[in-house]
Amino acid sequence: MQKVLLGGFLIMGLKIVAYFLTHSNAVLTDALESIINIITGIFALFSLYYASQPKDEDHPYGHGKIELLSAGFEGGLIFISGVLIIAKSIHGFFQPPTIHSLDIAAILSLLAGAANFIMGKYLIGLGKKHQSIIMTADGKHLISDTVSSIGLVIGLLVIHLTKLLWLDHVIAILFGGFIFYTGYKLLKQSITGLLDEADYENLEKLIVVLNENRSKKWIDMHNLRVLKYGHTLHIDAHITLPWYDNLENTHHEVIAVENLIKDKIHEDIEFFIHSDPCIPSSCAICSIADCKVRSEKFEQKLDWTLKNLLPNRKHRIND
């Protein structure tokens, strides 16, 4: 992350030089976004350090939520910069600046865009490896910077060739809108995470794994929840097991569920799995063929889905 931050300073320098050479609003949008990248990069670096701290009495779930706060801080700054860029560009129609050296600015912007692409790919890779929302968000933001830099270069060349200087303000407004939307998405992602919105992406993966590796003793599962705290996943669930098993066997089945999820989904997971005894209505969906205490006949295996795993109630055959 430190290398990316250093690279960000160099890219920011290129873009600021390009702006002072041209006095172009379109180039200014690119330079302002790089300044924001530096500010948020510093905050992100601190967030990663803080999130890596072990759990303590005051933070029993760890410190990972700060990554969401960091992503929200970044999204908010990007959102505000998009608004300011659009406002300045509209003002430029009425008081247009003198624009020059667009060819040099195009070259500098192209170099900056290439550097952003390399750093963005690197950060996304690290984010996926460490399950870090802030690394992934920063990487995607840098990739979006690359796309905007390419568009900016094309726009600058068109202005240079056609001498239609008013296009500079149009391009700046378009990029301002793109930056505005990028900030909005980051801000929304941060807010939904801080409000503990259900993690449906990991829920879908989890359901596939459970269905493909389901033990016959795992009669039923419900009240399934997945929350993300930094790189740590927290999984809560109720599992229905045979009522006649002793405590040791029940504990063995719960550990089997945990080990399966850690092996197939993600190693850094904290579980809270509550075991329930089966009841007579469970027999209809229980596939234990040699059960000696079955009170009702088996009818069919119930596949687990988002619809029937999330509610907090045992399942019946007509669910």
What does this structure look like?
The protein has two domains: 2-194, Alpha-lytic protease prodomain-like (Up-down Bundle); 200-309, Alpha-Beta Plaits, CATH 3.30.70.1350. Helix content is 62%, strand content 9%. It contains nine helices and three strands, in the order αααααααββαβα. Strands 1-2-3 form a three-stranded mixed sheet, with helices on one face. Strand 1 and strand 2 (232-241) form a beta hairpin. The longest helix has 30 residues, at 133-162. The protein is elongated and about 90 Å long. It starts with a helix and ends in a 10-residue tail after the last helix. The model has no long low-confidence stretch (mean pLDDT 80).
Strand order of the largest sheet: 1-2-3
Broad CATH class of the largest domain? Mainly Alpha
What proportion of the residues form beta strands (DSSP E)? 5-15%
Alpha-carbon distance between the termini? 49 Å
The overall average pLDDT, rounded, is 80
CATH second-level architecture of the largest domain: Up-down Bundle
Catalogue the unreliable spans: none
> What is the total number of structural domains?
2
| Total strands | 3
Q: Supply the helix-strand structural class.
A: mainly alpha
Tell me the number of helical segments per DSSP (H or I, 4 or more residues long): 9
Q: Sum up the overall morphology in one term.
A: elongated
Helix content: 55-70%
Oligomer classification: single chain
Find the CATH topology of the largest domain: Alpha-lytic protease prodomain-like
State the order of secondary-structure elements, H for helix, E for strand. Answer: HHHHHHHEEHEH
- Major beta-sheet overview: 3 strands, mixed
